[in-house]
Amino acid sequence: MSGLEPLEPERGVELYLKHRADDCADSTLNAHRLRLKHLLRWCEERGITNLNELTGRRLHEYRLWRKEDGDLNRVSVRTQMSTLRAFIDFCAQIDAVEMGLKETVDVPELDDGENARSVHINNDHAERILSQLSKYEYASLRHVLILLLWKTGVRTGTVRSINVDDVDSTEGYIEVRHRPGYGTPLKNKSAGERFIAISDKTARILTDWIEEKHPGTEDDHGQTPLLATRYGRISRSNIRKNSYWVTRPQFVGDDCQCGVDDHSYDDVHQCEDAVSPHALRRGSITHHLRSEVPRPVVSERANVSGDVLEKHYDETSLEEQMNLRREHLDNI
Q1: Which of 3.40.470.10, 1.10.150.130, 1.10.10.350, 1.10.260.40 is the CATH number of 9-104?
Q2: What pLDDT, in 10s, does the model give residues 11-28?
Q3: In CATH, what class is 123-283?
Q4: Which pLDDT band, with edges at 50, 70 and 90, does 313 fall under?
Q5: Where are the chain's structural domains?
Q6: Which residues is 225 bridged to in the sheet?
Q7: How confident is the model at residue 247 (pLDDT cuts 50, 70, 90)?
Q8: For residue 176, what are the β-bridge partners?
Q9: How many CA atoms lie within 13 A of 176 on its CB side?
């Protein structure tokens, strides 16, 4: 351990999280924090007070312990070990562990499709959320945000990029534009530009928001964002918080199964039953497919390739997929 500098596990995790804060979403950073809490618990149980003491054998022992302690499947083990590997890599950079120690962290390989996440909101849940919003927060910022995320299936960055002038309620569509010079780029750049059709009901809610409740604020580039607060364009963190808030079971009168006591607005992201905007996007795409919207149409509307659509977003079962295909093959 020549050249290493002593570092307590708790302090190491603290430095790591501060290091990742600038390049991680709040939800990602919180996930890393929760995973590394198990490492801290393991270190405490084994009397490890200095990260210099970590070795390849000890990290292997931790992997076995974590798998048994959490009753983890292979996908969860991979997630836990990926975070551990990133943490050990950081520790090596600050001389807390031997350089190259990260290579001893066994991150299991997964079969095709095994790592595709399945967290999503189903249509019944989404409609209950929208019903609550329509009844108690009609045409509010939160109502419009969740409505657009569910009805269009767009990404967080896309919904945030929409300006008031991009909405044509009369013709029933929203124009999505790539505007990097104005701080609202699209993930797929100009290839992500498109027109998204909206229903008469959605158009009416957007009109009521724009004409009655929109604060009229502009962003730093002089644009009038559709999703605006008193301070300008809605932030990504605000979008995530709103998603967590409405998807917690209590919002629609259900009981929560998580072990978190504090479900306040600022801490609701800790609830395991509340989900991010990406789960709304995934659920929306799945609902479109189950509603027999052709896959190419869903792909273009959500601006996602067919391969990615199938691997990461399509939650329809194999039987559902067969029945959807059958309707197009009756005469063959």
Answers
A1: 1.10.150.130
A2: 999 999 999 988 777 777
A3: mainly alpha
A4: low
A5: 9-104, 123-283
A6: 163
A7: very high
A8: 194
A9: 28
The answer to whether the CB of 165 falls within 8 A of the CB of 179 is no
Residues 149-169 have a mean pLDDT of: 96
Q: Which of 73-77, 225-229, 310-314 has the lowest mean pLDDT?
A: 310-314
Q: What is the DSSP string of 140-207?
A: -HHHHHHHHHHHH---HHHHHH-BGGGEETTTTEEEE--BGGGTB--TTGGGG-EEEE--HHHHHHHH
Q: 202 is written with which tokens?
A: 């959605």
Q: How far apart are the first and last CA of the chain?
A: 71
Copy the structure tokens of residue 193: 């530009």
Q: What are phi and psi of 114, to 5 degrees?
A: -70, -30
Quick one: CA dihedral 290, 295, 297, 301, positive or negative?
Answer: positive
